[in-house]
Structures are given as C-alpha cells and as structure tokens.
Design goal:
Distance between the termini: 70 Å
Strand content: 35-45%
Strand order of the largest sheet: 1-2-3-4-7-8-6-5
Radius of gyration: 21 Å
C-alpha cells in the first residue's frame, strides 16, 4: 500500500512539473511575440479606412468573422485580423478579412475589394504608431466549400516573407453564404 501511495505522489509531482513547465514555456513564447497589433487598415484606391478587430477561430477551426443582425453594427465597417497567425509586418502570411455585405444586402467594408489590381497600395497602422505599406501582387477567387490544402497554405501557411492577405466573400449567394472567397495577396514594401 505504501508503494502505491509513493508512486501516486511521484506521478502527481511529475504531472505538476509538466504543467508548470508548460505554463512557463507558454509565457516565454507570449512574451517573445511583439506586442504589435494592427489598429487601422487603409486602402486609398477603394477609399477604405477601417478599424481592425482581432479575431481567433470558430469552434470548427475556421477564421472567425463576427456578424450581427443589426444594420449599423461595427462588424460591417471593421476588418478582422486573424490573431492566431502573424501580425502585419511580421514574417509570414498575416490575414485580414472583412464582410462584402451586411444584413439586408447593403455594401460592407470589403464590397469593392475585387476592384484592387496588382500595384495598388494597402496601408496598416499599428497600435504602436508604426505605418506599414503593402503592394498588391494578385487577386484570386477560390471555391468557398472545401478549399484545398494548397489554398489554405497559400492564404494562411508559412512563408519567409512579409505578406498581408485580404479575404472576403464573392460569387453567388447560395442562401447559406457565398460560393467563393476572394483573396488579395500583398507583399510588404520595406521602408
């Protein structure tokens, strides 16, 4: 009986040590990440100047894009930065999404996103006051249902460069959503 209690105590100490080490590693990783977060997105060619809201994932693992039944909700005039990935200006694919239309079908912040063309400029103001500039490389439409792993990697996957990918819905309304996703791929212009 004493051996069982001893082994139980030893197991408990090991579990507590693993939890403590895990918490320490998480706090070191969090502290190592820059506190930079985007505050404002500006696209002069489309006359867009929108506040940025950080978002995570939905229960199904997709990027969240909050909605509202209110016609004048800030969700229709704001954009959403995927805070589970890099921030604009960091190495990797930073992703910002916005709604194409609002409840009732009126235009929302990214209504005209598909009008961007290679060479157009996109600006991100960071909460620190830093201003970042990106240039549009290409504009691509993908099927909304079951995107391939290649598409997911192109938008969210790792890269050694500094990209900002802008996403919105496009195509035909199906009654449950749009059948396409429009992605604007941009690269940071080094100052």
């Amino acid at each position: 009986m004493k051996k069982i209690i001893l082994y139980g105590c030893l197991l408990l100490v090991i579990v507590l040590a693993v939890v403590a080490l895990s918490n320490r590693i998480t706090s070191v990783e969090t502290a190592a990440k820059p506190a930079q977060t985007p505050a404002q997105l500006r696209i002069p060619a489309l006359q867009i100047n929108a506040p940025v809201m950080p978002v995570g994932q939905t229960a199904s693992g997709a990027m969240d894009a909050p909605t509202s039944k209110a016609l004048h909700s800030p969700y229709w005039t704001s954009v959403f930065w995927y805070d589970q990935g890099p921030a604009p200006g960091q190495t990797g694919n930073a992703v910002i999404a916005g709604h194409v239309d609002r409840v009732g079908g009126d235009p929302a912040v990214f209504w005209s996103l598909g009008h961007l063309a290679p060479g157009d400029k996109v600006f991100v103001a960071m909460k620190s006051g830093q201003q970042l500039q990106f240039v549009v490389n290409r504009v691509v439409k993908y099927p909304a249902s079951a995107p391939s792993q290649d598409v997911i990697n192109a938008v969210f996957g790792p890269t050694g460069e500094h990209h900002l990918n802008l996403i919105t819905c496009s195509g035909v309304w199906t009654g449950n959503g749009y059948d396409e996703r429009l992605v604007v791929f941009t690269t940071q212009v080094q100052a």
